[in-house]
Amino acid sequence: MARRPNYNFEKRQKEIDKQKKKEEKAAKKLARKEGGGLEDEFGNPIDDEGTEGPGGESEPADEDDA
Asked: Would you state the pLDDT for residue 5?
């Protein structure tokens, strides 16, 4: 007779993973709120002097020289 899978264990592991992800998200949100720094969609900091361009290079901020 084959052994039955332990569904309770699998369910508990999913709950633990879900809780861990929720805690990480809350910590990240708190760090953003406290730091006040700008980040791109990947969580990389963006300099105040310019915006991040393609390839991770910083582009200078637009300035009007009229």
From this structure: 83
Backbone phi and psi for residue 45, each to the nearest 5 degrees, phi listed first = -70, 145
Q: How far apart are CA 25 and CA 47, in angstroms?
A: 23
Structural contact between residues 36 and 46, judged by C-beta atoms closer than 8 angstroms? no
- In terms of DSSP H, where are the helices of 1-66? 7-35
The pLDDT tens digits for 2-60 are: 788 889 999 999 999 999 999 999 999 888 888 766 667 777 777 665 555 556 555 55
**What is the pLDDT at residue 44?**
76
Q: Give every CB contact of residue 58 below 8 A, 6+ residues apart in sequence.
A: 47, 49, 50, 51, 52
DSSP reduced 3-state for 65: coil
Q: SS3 for 51?
A: strand
